[in-house]
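Today's session is about reading a structure prediction critically. Students often jump straight to the picture, but the first step is always the sequence itself: look for stretches that repeat, for charged clusters, for runs of hydrophobic residues. Only then move on to the predicted structure, which in these notes is written as discrete structure tokens rather than atom positions. Here is the chain we will use throughout the hour.
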Amino acid sequence: MAVSRKPLLLLVLFVIAFTTTSFAESDSDSDLVADLLSLQSRSKSGVIHLDDHSIRRFLSSAKPPRSYSLLIFFDAVQLHEKSELHLQDLRSEFTLLASSFIANNRDSPSSSKLFFCDLEFKESQSSFGQFGVNSLPHIRLVGGDVKNLKDSDQMDQGDFSRLAESMSDFVESKTKLTVGPIQRPPMFSKKQIGVFLAVLAIWIPFVIKKVIAGETLLHDSKVWLGGAVFVYFFSVSGAMHNIIRKMPMFLADRNDPSKLIFFYQGSGMQLGAEGFAVGFLYTIVGLLLAFVTHVLVRVRNVTVQRVIMVFALLVSFWAVKQVVYLDNWKTGYGIHAFWPSSWN
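Below is the predicted structure for this chain, in token form.
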């Protein structure tokens, strides 16, 4: 009997150990989810700040399949000054995506399926290496079945095009979860709107009095003239392009950081200083044309008219020549004069 009980006892111990291990692993995953939810609740933005230790705990040591996924934004504080990377703008859109997902899925099981995190380069250089990140901006989705961190899904540059909205499409396509509408904060708070309406109510009677008396800026022709010149300059200088693309005024030379680049060679990019230079040249030609057609025609002295006319033509020719030269330098396309065949 003693011999027959020993294998039975070993079998019971094995079953107990296996069951205990399974429960421990299950509890471990639930504990990790609980910790992630706790970290998320303590974050004002809903984005969990990770480091090398957190990556080991929530990803490397937590063997798949995991019940949760992590969307990680890779950041580097020292690169925030490089406006062409738009790191801070993308970071704010990432935060907006996180807060919208949390708000839209507050009472849903999906709230514990996806967490938004960030990694800072100086604090987590080892983790950057594990993911194989060597350039920014960079966002990765680590699914619950991912074993090797380098095999996680990287968000392409095209997924940044519509900012938080395109990031939401990426998340929904990869995780099959619903992010919901992006909840952008209003441009003005209720208090600001209330103050504005109060000031407007006080100001309206004085404005009506000025309008009736004809003493407003809208009755001043000089204001309209200045506004017309500004709109003309704004349109020909490409200022709207610079504002939309958030182009810098100049760039530092990569070969010599002490030098600045104001004109960029290439048709796909225009710096702010370059746009202002072109706008200034166009505005000179426009103002000279307006002066000749509206002011010079009233001068009775023919000699003065001719001298000013020649001067205006020479300056306009020089300005147009500079614009053509710049366009040829940037694009490689030239403008060539020719005589009509009928003149030969």
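Discussion point for the tutorial: Residues 7 and 164 are 61 Å apart (CA to CA).
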